[in-house]
Amino acid sequence: MHDLIAITALGGTTPRVDTVAGVTCTENPAVALASVAARLGQEAKAQKALAKLIDASAPDVGQHAGGTIAAFWSTPDQWMIEAPFESHEDLADQVNSAMGDSASVTEQTDAWTRFDLTGDPLASVLELLCILDLRKISAGSVACCSIHHVGCFVLCRSPEEFSIYGPRSSAGSLHHAIVTAMRSAL
Amino acid sequence: MTQSNRLSGGQIDRNTTVNFRFDNRSYTAHPGDTLASALLANDVRLIGRSFKYHRPRGLLTAGSEEPNGIVELRTGARKEPNTRATTIEMFDGLEATSQNRWPSLKFDALGVNDLFSNFLSAGFYYKTFMWPAAFWEKVYEPIIRRAAGLGSLSMEDDPDEYDKGFRHCDLLIIGAGPSGLMAALTAGRAGADVILADEDFQFGGRLNSETLSVGDQNASDWAAQAVAELSSIPNVRLMPRTTVIGAFDHGIYGAVERTGDHLPSLPAGKPRQILWRIYTKKALLCAGATERPIAFENNDRPGVMMASALRTYANRFAVTASSRVAIFTNNDDGHRTAADLHAKGVHICAVVDVREDAPVNYDYEVLSGAKVIDTKGRLGLTFVEVALPDGSTRTLDCGALGVSGGWNPNVHLTCHQRGRPVWNEALAAFVPGSNLPVGLTVAGAANGRMSTFGALQSGAEGAAAALDLKGAPPKLPEAEDAPVAQKPFWYVEGCKRAWVDQQNDVTVKDVKLSYQEGFRSVEHLKRYTTLGMATDQGKTSNITGLAIMAEVAGKSIPETGTTIFRPPYTPVPISTFAGRMKGQEFHPTRLTPSHHWAKERGAVFVEAGNWLRAQWFPLPGETHWRESVDREVRQTRASVGVCDCTTLGKIDVQGTDAAEFLNRVYANGFAKLAVGKTRYGLMLREDGMVMDDGTAARMAEDHFVVTTTTANAVSVYRHMEFVRQCLFPDMDVQLISTTDSWAQYAVAGPNSRKLLQKIVDPEFDISNEAFPFMACGNITVCGGLRARLFRISFSGELAFEIAVPARYGDALMRRLMSEGEEFDVVPYGTEALGVMRIEKGHAAGNELNGTTTALNLGMGKMVSKKKDSIGSILSEREALVEPDVLRLVGLKPVSPEDKITPGGHLMNAAGPVDAANDQGYATSAAYSPILNSNIGLALLKDGANRLGEKMRLVSPLTDLTVEVEIVSAHFVDPEGERLRA
Amino acid sequence: MIINHPLLGPRDAAEFTYLGDASMIDRPDWQAEDAAEAFYDYAYLRDNLAGEHRELWYHEAGDRSWLVVTRDTTTHEISKVELARDVARARGRSK
Question: Which C residues, 50 through 79, put their C-beta within 8 Å of a C-beta on chain B?
């Protein structure tokens, strides 16, 4: 076991939590990520392997699915795999073995910072942050969009629980935008 | 006496009294008032001075079209100039100041301009300030700036928060008057997602200003009931205090919601205004109509107002501008004002109606076929002079004159996509044309349906049509449906100073003069006279100006043309457009994993794109940045230094065709690169110029890790996706950015290996034999953490780049520092990095400047001719390969203390200094603490063959001439022995 | 403007980066006799029409798809949006 101590994207040793009225924004570093991109001509095989890995059909455009290991659609024939960091720090290796030669796998754990928004009403916070038509978003939806000029993924787990993934290096700006929007809207 | 002009009734909250100040005097008002209605209630008619002539001005209107009643709202940093008193919602403690006057509103020294008005006519800027030219900057401009202009800025930072947001709906309804409310009811009841926006704080539009009935209710009660019903429909979103400022492409509308302007102070964290971007397939414009004035002599005197505004003040705000009011009209609507005011107990001196057949009223006198020919009163109206049809004149003793010239539909948003309104003869007004923004339709008075019933009906029909609703139309309440015919009457003949555009001080005469001087297009008229170009965009003046021009030209109005309107509908503070992107948050900031550590060390940061990078790390006692940078360079070259290079773009390239893909995007070859090896790569644009450089490390047969420069990370990734998707779509290659995934550090200097050996786990041999120059591989560090090691060097020293998952970057940097203590390790920033790369002669951003080829940079041989790669064909163009093309060389001043100035040009040692004799230019410069000399890099004609030559580096702009020697660009370790050690 | 992304549906043009004439897909053969001339035309001579124009847009803040958007440059009306990769294949590009 190595002895290097991790810090969160915002620079803390513990995740940052902000609550305004009924909405909480939690920095969530406890997630391992890996991207899976199907090899050319092996798309069907990759989808099958992915389905087996996440125990659900490979998510279609704009969707996420799965259990402990889950996946969301990111670009054509490409998905992001999520799993708990604690048990899956080596997620990329695990996914790589599961996919065999059907896909290219890249570790993405620290490429992203994740903020979980929970509570009510999230829609009034999100409408200040991103362009998404929230009427078309329900549990299981994922959308890419720009927040504060930073490219993000927005996952709807339920109307009271959203996850926002943004580039790790921009965590501070993204956090500023989210918390400002919370104060503004709530 | 307070609120001496207050009437009975109205929609104000009389149970609450609030205090406000105007020009440092205290007054009282009620919630529901605007600043304008409150000032009138307190008998304040003089509000400001005009733009050009500093003439006393009062309120003209009761709405956002107001040209005159503009004030500075609030004080200190929150002071907002040019706000319209007619739209400022009253709150307790409101403070406002008149503007454009000095020293005081009642005595304005620049009122003298008015006496020189003959010299300030149309185009006076162009005519007056022409000679002598040298006077413009020093004399004319400062004087004009002092005299003209409207409000003044606080010159302090705006302390308030602003926000932006995005909303989506099926139908956006713009305006909540009778048509808007009826449209919202129709659409809302049908289940559509509706946004109903209105600039007013109270929905209802003209319904709140009239004594009409809708169904069996008073009009304003009907409006209130409609609003109550709409509030209960979950799919209807009501946005009061929200101005839809623009109609943009494809159903995108801009709207400004004033969330905090009506509050004495903003609650913490709450925005003052929100700029909404509303996405909708359909929009219904229900913006109503604006009453237009008639121009006559001295029609700008405080107390001369729009008749409909007097009605609004009386019915909605329970205020009259004066106890004695006269009306000047060309249509029946003026009589409606007289009747309403009379019913409220205001004395109607007379209704002056230009029509011979004016309707007769027995409650007050009607002067048919008469005209107002002048007004009197120093700072406010006291008398009106009327010309009667028999040629006699009569003086009316009154404090307010209501003017009605008919109504103009508010077509503004229909023009935002260059749609042109069309002339409607019956209304003598422009109505929306056929070329509307896609998805926008128009209802109610905005579409020329002037009656209340017409508005209700067209609102309901408009909503049903927009949403394609089936089924029976909703039952409409009964309301007045009188036909409206307007016969134009634009101005009273024979006036010397009859004002058309009161905000920009344009008279009837100015319009005529500009025509006589040859300005025949309406657009030219606007620009020459400035008619309609003030902050009100000529809402009350454009049509009159156009009509006068048509008359002088002897053409009809539609033949003369029309001006169209642009966004924003009403002025928007710049802060609102900025939203929360201001100050430090002007753009998103990217931080490296060692940022917090570097901050603790007192690093000085520099912006590199969105990144903040440590520029140097000053130690206590170092007073000049050069001391820190020189030390960092010396210590690195003597022992070991560490630099955060996380910001370099990193792209994961995988797939069975990955190597061939890189062959195409890089000018040099990658197919034969062995696994475990890294290669420098030069990327060209298709035109043969260098786009970027970096390295590609082959981690596996089908896996490369590519790096780009910090600056080009985004564009290179975009370019690679273009090549993959658009040029070679059948290549099996997958791309993903990993820039943020890895914290990457350059560990450079003769002791770099020794330092890394203390960190890299022992099973990985990083000796020169096992891990030679340009090797790469997956390793573990510190007892098992996955990491990547690359033996590459930008400094020219024995060097490595080590990458760990970003979350451990901070810990690794601290570990490198503590383990490196025995080697006197030094962290170095981008300045030292730059010095060392110049010493080594590596091209970087200054040399990869978009105009240089591989040949220019001394890398011409890298461009492989044996394969297809982007840019290779055009890099061979004749002019790019001539023998004397620019080549990268080093510069050394003959006197080491002489500075090299990047951008300076090289001239031969003797001969003229001019463009014809230009030999090249310096690109980069630094002080080399190793050579104890200033040094530089340059691009020099035929440079490779001119080493040893003495030249002059000149910068005529800064009067600089430095004698330099042309040397090899590789100042340090030209044979590259160190990096292979 | 709204670009109706073939996979993601209507998206604001602000999420995209513009490149230009879709003829940039038709990159010449590097081994052809007239390669130098063909590449010169390819790199420098682009159509810039007043009217219907096929152009390349990149969904930078989205799914990173390159799109071929058929847009009337005089009205901004967008009549067709395709994945550039499909267009490239249809025009005979491969590897």
Answer: 56, 58, 60, 64-66, 76-78
